[in-house]
Amino acid sequence: MDRSLRTSGIASARPRSGARRAFRILVAALAVVTALTAVGSAVPDAAFAAPKSRFTSARKVGRGFANTTLGFLAIPGQMVVETRERGAAAGLPIGFGLGIGWFVASELIGVWEILTCPFEFPAGYKPIIEPEFPWQYFEE
Fold this sequence. Notes:
Layout: H1 3-8, H2 17-42, H3 57-70, H4 74-86, H5 88-115
Helix pairs in contact: 3-5, 4-5
């Protein structure tokens, strides 16, 4: 074989690294799907039964994502709540201060609820804070 062909890589029969990487990703994806299928078939049918209360594991994880992504709504929400109770002059600054605290709390509780969604804690998957969802501050 000509030396110039060997050094340019044209005569190489070795597959490209991109093809190897794609193959590895495909194998990993198939392994994940197989594992999830095995776990899903082991879940008892009682897990898919109708819930006894309105609070479920799915609602808990949804509440966690809502509090994590929309936790900033606690700041104007607390301002609205305090303005309703005390009037605008006192409610806005007090609500702003309380809203900062509620913002931090709702973010942390949201992460906690996402991580603990499979477990029934607190009992019955009830919310830890009220309002349950950040947009409920603005409802009357």
